[in-house]
Amino acid sequence: MLVGLTYDLKDDYLKEGYDAELVSECDSTLTIDTLEQTLRNLGYETVRIGNVKALVAYLAQGRRCDLVFNIAEGLFGFLRESQIPALLDAYQIPYVFSDSFVLAICLHKAFAKQVVASHGVKTASFALIEQPSDCELIQLPFPLFLKPVAGGTGIGISEHSLVQNEEELAIIANHLLSTYGQPVLVETYLSGREFTVGVTGTGDEAQSVGVMEILVDASSDKGIYSYKTKQEYLSCTRYVKPKVEEALLCEQVALGAWRALGCRDGGRVDVRMDKDGVVHFLEVNPLAGLHPVDSDLPILSAMHGITYETLLKRIMHSACSRSGLCIS
User: Fold this and answer.
1) What are 199-217's pLDDT values in tens digits?
2) Looking at residue 224, which CATH number applies to its domain?
3) Is the separation of the CB atoms in 184 and 149 below 8 Å?
C-alpha cells in the first residue's frame, strides 16, 4: 500500500520569513523522518508530498496513492486544516484522521464546545467576542479565561489570559482581536488541574491511549499552560500519570467529546477540573502533534507503555478499517 505524507514543514515557512509563532503548529523534519520510517517499518510504502500546494501539483500530474497520512495544519483561515481533506475527498482518495467538516468544527473552539455540550459533555460556560463592543455583553462571572477561538499550540495564551474584571477583559480581548485577527473565546475559568487524553479509533471503536496531567511551574506565566510554557516545556512543565480514578473521569469526558464531534483515527482531548474536581472538556486536537520527543500524544503514549510504532499502528488500523483498505 502506497501512503502519501501531507504536512507543513516549519523550516520551509521560516525561510520564507513567516513569524515563528504563526508556524508553531507546523512540523519539524525530525517528525516527518520518524513518521515515514515508522510507516515503512509497519510495511507501508511511502511518498512525501508536502503542503496543500504540493498536493495540488501532485494530483495535477495525475498521480495517486492508496491512502494519505495527513498532518498538515495549514496557516490561514478557519478552514486551514480542512483544505487537504476536502481536496482528497474531491479526488476520492482516503486519508488518515478526521474529515474536513470535523476539522473545521474542532478548530473553532466555540463551535466545538457547542457540539459537545449538546451531547451532555460538561464544558465551561463561554461567550464569543467578535468586536470590541462585545465585551460589554459578557455576562459570565469573573475570573474569565481568554484565548483566540482558532489558535493552537497555546498561540495567544499567556499569563494575561486570566482576567479578573471588566477593565482587564476589554484590554486583553482588544489585544487578541487586533493581534490574531479572529474572535476571542471567553470561558468561565476552571481553577482545577489540567489533563490531556490520547485517543485512537473512530466512533464506538475509539479508546483511550492514556491520560497525562500537565503541571506548569507557577513562576512561568503564573502556571498557565501558555505558548511560552509550551515552548519552554523542558524547564517549566512536568507530565504526571494520574491516579486510576482520576484518569477514568478524564477518559469519560474525552471519549464523549471525541464521539460527539465525529473525530477519527487518533488525536488528543484536553480537559480540566473545576474547583470541585469535576472534569470539563476544554478542546480537542484531531491533528495531534507526532514529534517523537516533545509532542504530547507520543509522550503520554510512552508514559502508558505504548511505543511510537504501536501508536501509529493503531491509527493506521482505524483509518484502513473504516476506508475498506487491506491492513498492513
Assistant:
1) 999 999 999 999 999 988 7
2) 3.30.470.20
3) yes
